[in-house]
Design brief:
The chain has 15 helices and 8 strands. With 341 residues, the protein is an alpha+beta fold. The radius of gyration is 25 Å and the shape is elongated. The termini are far apart.
Length: 341
């Protein structure tokens, strides 16, 4: 009498785990039978509150401890001869690895991974709270991400993610806080304290863009809840008092190839610095400080003259800085500069 291999039993556990969560949420799980399986185990049609989301995703599901590292900090599975099949599949393709010891799973966007790491021979999934699949968070964390919506976590859970040292958790936390809790004043305390106390390497362009919603600029596109006047004014007071070291960090975000123009990170940086009560004094000090990188000082020159064209005489002694001679001559001829023409 034949027996099922242990590996087959484990594989079925993973598929059954995902199937049960999908069906409990009201979505549809289409299993692809093993004889027709060429790197895709199922297709899931996602529904939200009983209504179709018009989102279907194909999944490869792996199960068992053999797909986890010894420290269980990442999971992995081989690409083998599936690269072209996954890359060219008509639907999005995600991978799931099921942890049968802890009854939870982790997901990854396979197509994106193959694009980002074209020479890898295996898919590696670093385990964190953004890509976990478990019963308690399936509907408010996993499902929203599949249909490109912001997860519905509590403010406490979102703050905890934001404060994480794991990039994916921090990024998701900032998105949830801004999208769902932007009129909670504590969020702006947290955001602005973060850019003040963190290094430039820990601050994302995404967070700079969120903070630029406080002053606003022509290329800010609002979605969802708007900032109330009370919240905006509260955050503006915080920005008015950020120290010079934060101004320097913001200037360092400006891409030297793009500069300050519409749609650039420089535009968001300019809007934030413009809120500062001491911006003229700080910019002059930054320009005069030869220990600061020349590109940062040049960007400070541009903002100084943009904010106050009367600073033209001060800038004369810094003509040697990159592009500053051209700007000084332009301002003298035309009376000022407009960064966003």
């Amino acid at each position: 009498m034949g027996k099922l291999k242990p590996s087959s039993i484990t594989a079925k556990r993973g598929i059954n785990f995902i199937k049960s969560l999908v069906e409990e949420s009201g979505s549809i799980f289409h299993k692809i039978e093993q004889e027709n399986d060429f790197g895709i185990d199922c297709i899931i049609e996602f529904f939200l509150n009983g209504s179709p989301t018009n989102t279907s995703i194909a999944y490869q599901i792996k199960s068992g401890k053999s797909y986890f590292s010894k420290k269980r900090d990442y999971a992995f599975f081989q690409i083998e001869d599936h690269r072209d099949y996954w890359s060219n599949y008509s639907l999005p393709v995600h991978g799931i690895v099921y942890d049968d010891q802890n009854d939870k799973a982790y997901w990854i966007d396979i197509k994106k991974y193959l694009h980002d790491f074209p020479n890898d021979t295996s898919i590696k999934i670093f385990l964190n709270r953004t890509n976990i699949i478990e019963k308690k968070s399936f509907s408010n964390l996993f499902l929203p991400q599949m249909i490109r919506k912001i997860p519905e976590l509590t403010i406490e859970e979102s703050i905890e993610l934001f404060k994480s040292d794991i990039i994916q958790e921090h990024s998701l936390g900032s998105s949830i806080l801004f999208s769902n809790y932007k009129n909670e004043k504590v969020i702006w305390d947290i955001f602005i304290d973060y850019i003040t106390s963190s290094t430039i390497y820990d601050i994302s362009s995404q967070l700079i863009y969120y903070i630029a919603h406080v002053p606003g600029h022509p290329d800010i596109f609002y979605t969802g809840t708007q900032l109330t006047d009370e919240t905006r004014n509260y955050a503006k007071i915080l920005l008015a008092n950020i120290p010079k070291k934060t101004i320097i960090k913001l200037l360092e975000f400006i891409n030297p190839e793009i500069g300050i123009q519409r749609g650039s990170i420089g535009q968001s940086v300019e809007a934030i610095i413009n809120c500062n009560s001491n911006k003229i004094e700080y910019l002059r000090e930054i320009i005069a400080d030869e220990t600061i990188h020349e590109e940062t000082r040049s960007h400070a020159c541009i903002l100084l003259i943009y904010f106050d064209k009367r600073q033209i005489d001060f800038l004369e002694k810094y003509r040697s800085l990159q592009n500053i001679k051209t700007i000084i001559d332009f301002v003298k001829e035309f009376g000022g500069i407009d960064l966003y023409i």
